[in-house]
Amino acid sequence: MNKKKFDLCLVIPDIGGGGTQRVLMNLVKNWLNQGKKICVITFFNEKADFFELPIAVSRKSINFTGESKNLVVAIWNNLRRVKSLRSMIKAYQPKLVLSFLGTTNVLTILATFFMQIPVIVSERSDPTRDSLGNIWDKLRHLLYRYADIVTANSHGAIVALEKFVDAGKLKYVPNPVCIEEPFRPLTYSFPAILAVGRLSYEKGHDILLSAFSKFIHQFTQWRLVIVGDGELRNKLKQFAVNLNIDKYIIWGGMQLDIFSYYNAATIFVMPSRYEGTPNALLEAMGCGLPVIVSNASSGILQFVKNEETGLVVPVEDVETLYLAFCRLANDELLRKRLGEKARQKIKMETQCAYELWDEVLNINRY
Q1: Residue 282: inside a domain, yes or no?
Q2: Domain assignment present for 179
Q3: Which of 49, 225, 248, 270 is surrounded by the most beta carbons within 10 Å?
Q4: Number of compact structural domains in the chain
Q5: Burial 188-213 (b: 16+ CB within 10 A, else e)
Q6: In what order do the strands lie in the sheet with 267-270?
Q7: Is 215 helix (H, G, I), strand (E, B) or coil?
Q8: Could you give the CA distance from residue 3 to residue 64 in angstroms, rounded to a whole number?
Q9: What is the pTM assigned to this prediction?
Q10: In a shared domain, residues 164 and 262
Q11: Do 287 and 200 fall into the same domain?
Q12: Average pLDDT of the segment spanning 94-111
């Protein structure tokens, strides 16, 4: 029997700036510290990278991202992706394959049929709230049962997955968060509300801007810092102009050193319409920030208990969000208490996350 070349093969669409990619980077660093040999396969090449993989990690890119103009072309393109992925996994000869994100999970399961390699897929959202599209949703329902283990980062997602995956294969594993980053705060001459996330409809930045427009009339020394990019960037900037609050807003774009923003902020806000378990929230809590979140998902509410580890407001409730801003702006002791409780919560969860990942993958047997 051939000796396996790698302990783990990780499959992910890209190494872009998303929360799942940040989770992968944290896991890679942890497993490298354990002496594990890791390879990564991406569908996009290095041009799409935001994070830089450690030099010890071997990486291959399928780099086949042709557009699918119709169903026949889509099927053909994805069969080519599956074939390429299978060839790369065979070449790497890993002991385990771990895949991230819905469509990539489906393709990875197809690529590893009859290869006698354990396959773990990581679902990063609640399937009842985050559709992949009609055909991909059906494939997810059909194929996830063939994975050896399916992980999810919220209890709500586990409940949803139980409808089409055997409960014995499902494992809850929270996001690992690096909270021991050195404090490198930016220097602000003002108190700041920070929002981090993709500029897309589900993130609720329009709700945030509406609430902030009410808040800034009373708290003129404050500023709103928005880190992230996305398809709604220009529309949101114009909305801020229409509200006459653009001079109070800093648009940070994508940031590699996100911790400097957390450590410079006064309050963190996440006004999402719907969410999975957002890494940005956990990082902010880990940095000791008082947080305001919407009750958009069970993943958020697992970590933020109202009045204990943060403040929770109803989804799309501009008035309540505005009042939460006012309350924290006026109460430094409350900010400190919520921030300390939040950091304690994340410190416990992070240690648990790494242990659970090792348990799920049984990585320490190698």
Answers
A1: yes
A2: no
A3: 270
A4: 2
A5: eeebbbbbbbbbbeebbbbbbbbbbb
A6: 249-253, 223-227, 192-196, 267-270, 291-294, 311-313
A7: helix
A8: 30
A9: 0.82
A10: no
A11: yes
A12: 95
Across residues 148-177, what is the average pLDDT?
Answer: 90
What are the tens digits of pLDDT across the range 241-253?
999 999 999 999 9
What's the CA gap between 344 and 15, in Å, rounded?
A: 29
Same domain membership, residue 162 and residue 202: no
Rounded to an integer, what is the distance from CA 181 to the centroid of its chain?
Answer: 18
Task: Pull the structure tokens for residue 49.
Answer: 């990278």
Sign of the four-CA dihedral 231, 54, 148, 19: negative
Q: Does residue 274 form part of some domain?
A: yes
316/319 Cα distance (integer angstroms): 9
Domain housing 245:
192-348
Q: What is the pLDDT of residues 260-292, one digit of tens each?
A: 899 899 999 999 998 878 889 999 999 999 999
In this structure, what token pair is assigned to residue 108? 């990875």
* Distance from C-alpha of 342 to C-alpha of 308, rounded to nearest angstrom: 8
Which two three-digit tokens encode residue 178?
Answer: 């690096």
Parallel/antiparallel/unpaired status of strands 149-152 and 223-227: unpaired
Distance, CA of 132 to CA of 116 (rounded, Å): 28
Q: Which residue has the tokens 């969860």?
A: 349
- Alpha-carbon distance 146 to 324, whole Å? 46
CA-based R_g, the chain, Å: 21
Instruction: Kindly report the CATH number assigned to the domain that includes residue 63.
Output: 3.40.50.2000
DSSP state of 309: T
> Within this chain, do residues 205 and 165 fall inside the same structural domain, yes or no?
no
pLDDT attached to residue 57 = 95
**In a shared domain, residues 129 and 204:** no
**pLDDT tens digit sequence for 8-33:** 999 999 998 888 998 999 999 999 99
The rounded distance, in Å, linking the Cα atoms of 258 and 241 is 26
